[in-house]
Design goal:
0% strand, little secondary structure, 19 residues, globular, single chain
Length: 19
């Protein structure tokens, strides 16, 4: 799992959001 800052840019578990 990647480090998530906020659940705002959280698209899905395992999927890399906007880095």
């Amino acid at each position: 799992m990647k480090k998530q800052k906020a659940s705002s840019e959280s698209r899905g578990p395992g999927s890399s959001p906007r880095l």
